[in-house]
């Protein structure tokens, strides 16, 4: 059994969309390698900082990603999907990359109470506020708006008859 602590960059851009890990961003890897009958069992954690854009307010922020992984590197490669031990070494790049990509959120938010942007002005809203849009009436229905006000102002005959019976 060996324990390894290593820090190195990916060397390539990881992820797409609103959260990515830049090529020069260092990955902190804490790894435990154990010899088992089938090969080498690699368990550990990886930590990296991703550059993310809030899906609500479009603010860029750093997002810490911590992932756990467990992978068996086999000697014989019985399956095409197996990771192999080559010359008594294991290549952790693909394992760590896959774990980090799966941990990246599809719609990251800079804070849980982010209210996003005001739909009319495009300004960032303060936390906990909801946009209150001005009520606009379609000009094609403007005449019906006057009719609705007349109906609510005048009591109907049914209401008048109901009050007489009481």
Question: TL;DR of this structure?
Answer:
By secondary structure, the chain is an alpha+beta fold. Helices cover 19% and strands 31% of the residues.
Structural shape? elongated
Structural class: alpha+beta
- By DSSP, the count of extended strands is 6
Mean pLDDT: 82
Helix content: 10-25%
Number of helices: 3
> Main sheet, how many strands, which sense, barrel?
6 strands, mixed
Unreliable segments of 5+ consecutive residues = none
Radius of gyration computed on alpha carbons: 30 Å
Distance between the termini: 91 Å
H/E element order: EEEEEEHHH
- Beta-strand percentage? 25-35%
Description:
This protein has 166 residues and is of the alpha+beta class. 19% of the residues lie in helices and 31% in strands. It contains 3 helices and 6 strands. Strands 1, 2, 3, 4, 5 and 6 form a 6-stranded mixed sheet that branches. Strand 4 and strand 5 form a beta hairpin. The longest helix is centred in the C-terminal third of the chain and has 12 residues. It is elongated and about 85 Å long.
Name a few traits of the molecule.
single chain, 166 residues, alpha+beta, 6-stranded mixed β-sheet, 3 helices, 31% strand
């Amino acid at each position: 059994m060996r324990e390894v602590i290593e820090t190195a960059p990916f060397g390539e851009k990881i992820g797409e969309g609103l959260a990515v890990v830049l090529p020069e961003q260092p990955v902190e890897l804490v790894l435990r390698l154990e010899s088992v009958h089938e090969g080498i069992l690699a368990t550990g954690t990886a930590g990296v900082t991703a550059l993310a854009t809030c899906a609500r307010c479009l603010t860029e922020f750093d997002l810490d990603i911590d992932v756990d992984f467990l992978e068996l590197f086999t000697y014989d490669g019985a399956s095409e999907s197996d990771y192999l031990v080559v010359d008594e070494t294991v290549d952790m790049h693909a394992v760590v990359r896959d774990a980090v990509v799966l941990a990246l959120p599809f719609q990251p938010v800079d804070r849980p109470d982010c209210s996003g942007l005001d739909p009319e002005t495009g300004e960032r809203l303060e936390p906990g506020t909801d946009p209150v849009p001005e009520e606009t009436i379609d000009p094609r229905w403007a005449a019906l708006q006057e009719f609705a006000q007349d109906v609510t102002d005048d009591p109907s005959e049914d209401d008048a008859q109901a009050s007489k019976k009481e």
